[in-house]
Fold:
Amino acid sequence: MNIQINTDHNIEGNERLSTYLETKITDALSRFEQQLSRIEVHLTDENGEKKGKDEKRCLLEARLDGMDPVAVSGLGDTVEAAVNHAVEKMKAKLTTITDKIKNH
Structure:
């Protein structure tokens, strides 16, 4: 599973962030690893330099083998909170999709 990370100009894409994201996503989605070819992570700060509630956004796009991409997003006060929210949504969505495939 390849993980591609994209950030806007308001979020610094450093090594610490990359390591955190790769570990978090790999651990959370490990049961789908055989079916996933790529995960794209898009991090944005909705308000730029202004402070606000739920201003960080994480968009996750999963590429399942032989299927259309699946996307979810999560919001949070921090990048980590937004990532956690999006990862939980993606886990639920992938579970639903794979369960439907198994039952057909």
